[in-house]
User: What shape does this take?
Amino acid sequence: PPPPARTRSTDVGSLLKLSVQPSRGLVDEKWKIVLQNATPSCSVTLHAHCTCEDGHNWEAFGHYTSDATGTVDGFLRPVPGSKPGLRMRKTNIQVPTVVTISVYQGHHNMGFTDRVLLASVVVERWYMAPGVRRIPITEGGLTATLFLPPGSGQFPGILDLWGGGGKLVEYRAALFASHGFASLALDYLTCKVTTDTGLVDDEYFETAYRVLQQHPQVMGSRIAMLGLSLGTSITLKMATYSDVIKLRCAVCISGSHVQPVGGSLKDILELFEKNHKKAYVNEEKQVIMRNLLLPIPSEPSLKADVGRLQCSLLLVVGEDDQNWPSYESALDMKEMMEKAGNVHLLTVLSYPNAGHLIEPPYSPHTRYSNFVSVGRREKITVGVLCIWVCLHYSMIHVSSLFFHGHSLHIRCLSN
Amino acid sequence: MLRALAPIISVAPVRAMMDERFSVLVENLPPAAPVTVQSHHYSDDQDDWEAYGHYISDHNGTVSVSKHLSFGGTYSGVEPMGLLWSMCPVPGSRMGLRLRKKDVCTPLVVNISVYSGHDGFRDKKPLASAITERWYMAPGVKRIEVNENGVRGTLFIPPGPGPFPGILDMWGGGGGLHEYRAALLASHGYTALALEYFKPGELQTANLKFQYFENAFRIIQDHPKVNPDSVGILGLSLGSSIALGLAAYSNIIKPRACVCIGANHTNGLEVHESKDGFINLEQAIVDENNHHIWRNIGLAMMRDPSNLVDVQRINCPVLLVSGQDDQNWPSVEMADDITQKMHDVGKAHQLTRIDYPDAGHLIEPPFSPHFRATNFMVKDKYKVIVLWGGQTKPHSDAQEDSWRKILVFFQQHLYSITSPKAKL
Assistant: This one.
């Protein structure tokens, strides 16, 4: 008997062909989506979906008119009905994030699971390039992970610090290793030392630096520090004052130089705690913390003396940072360095409409998220929706270029 | 700018499909420095394969494999993909090796390194390395082992709701089950069945039945994710002859389009039943290296029309891909004969043929290393070395060009939005 008729004819055209390149990319690589065989001039929605490690679903979509090849420049946001205040962060970076890209007929904004699916493909997004080695580090009491690029040679090093949320966050260091840097992700707030004896002191960071410096595959004279948020405070402190840590250059994202000079991490946190009353809660019950460090003091004992810096410094700030006064701090740092005569070391990248969490490219933007700081649990507003994709892309490539250009590497990054 | 920076080598994309191009870039070299870029792969069969090119960096200290000239090595000239297609077994390896991935669920891992100097580069430590993955299966493609109705093979299904066009994928007289091409086809949106129709060494003794292949075709057609009107056949060598036989004689199945690599219209199934195996070894010629040349066996078979498929009965589009230096089978002569016969009955418009100069018999997916002669198990444990032909560079060009053309051919005939009736 003849096989049953199973051809499906739709308005869009039977046997649509959807392809995405690359199908397995690093998270900072652009992708290209091509749809073929649609009937001319018809409306389609291209939709991206993934399920995060913690089980939450994220989606993005774009509306198109067919008969054109196109690229998706949407962004991932939580599906309506999901738990509010989500932030997409990958913990197991040795496996990819799997994203399903689908095509639906017509222009829709919601209810995708109820729509007729015309075609879909699967793509993988990786934080680690093949051959990158992940090495947990407990030497010297550290809670850290070292990522080494493939190969037997030596690499410049990056000491990678996140912010007040703590934990050992690996994905950015993994990505840097995928670009040729030996990168050490360091937990300095929720680490074993802190659990056992309390907040770490300067020696902890100096130990981390030494571990990198003395590693046979790291170029000891080419080590940089990268800090976000509270990580900026540590980076500036070490870059400015440490006798042990000699940085080739430093990158500070969304942070401030305001801190008690000569103080420990504990002292820095106490300064925030002391000013906590300056935080306020907006109509949406989101906590705005930027005032904690405002106004920027003129008193020299209350801010890292960046006029003493001898290495290059890149400041990346979002002008709509609601969490830290990073923009105001950058302006003040510039002024200090102008007065001290070392402003030639400074580069400031300031993004209008960008918020606090400036992450690797194509990460979903989170306007606000649940934030568990050391000791508290609260929702913090982190910034306005914006041209996130472009911002991220330029951020990681500017960071790389900065690291490369300042004698870690000479490298021309195309694209 | 300070000197004495470490060279860095990068590959983009670092994870790619086997048929995708990549670019290899070396930076931070001294200017005008002689270097060697080398690729290395350790195969499933535990052999070491390598390719290399000798370069001279420009005054920015850069070597771009995509743009710069290789002065020699396993490839020369401006060859962006030379590090893959010119791969050969390292000196000291066993003879007659062929690189074929068995496990398609894992990538082919290639290490790409840069060394200082040209001659004797291997004696030094590499200046920098990168690792790149080459995949046969795109994410989301499903792999399903088939053992149904006597049919043995592996089915690959693209991600998505379907329905998809289908392809029956058949290799040649070497036998066995080879999944990599079907996996690639599925990665391009076709439900593809890699079919095993005899085991290696059974070329002369296998008991093949027409019905076996019809059943295989039906398995694809009947699959819920396949559009039953859009199923084609891709066959290489003996697989080519089976494809043409099915298209000409089957009353049960009608392929929508056929691609024959190594044009072969001997009636494989008929011949086997009447003679003592497919290959009359007494007619084989051996060259100065004791490699078997079988093309004259095919020429002899062509002289008797009863050995040939009546191609004039075929009603679907056919694409013939042949190598002009095919030493194993007279593909060009057979393509000539097929062309003439189709022309004689007014069916020339159904036929496309592409003959590649200096290409051999084994026209594989892009960037597969070229093998001029490899081990072949004829019967039981009796192995010979068979000469396939082809010169490496033109053969590799043929592989890349033919694959792209095959994909467009299948897209045109299997993915078209016009109904089949509108074609005739």
In short: Helices of chain A lie at 171-177, 192-197, 202-214, 230-241, 265-274, 326-340, 388-408. The two ends of chain A are 56 Å apart (CA to CA). Chain A touches chain B through 54 residues (CB under 8 Å). Chain A is about 20% helix and 30% strand.
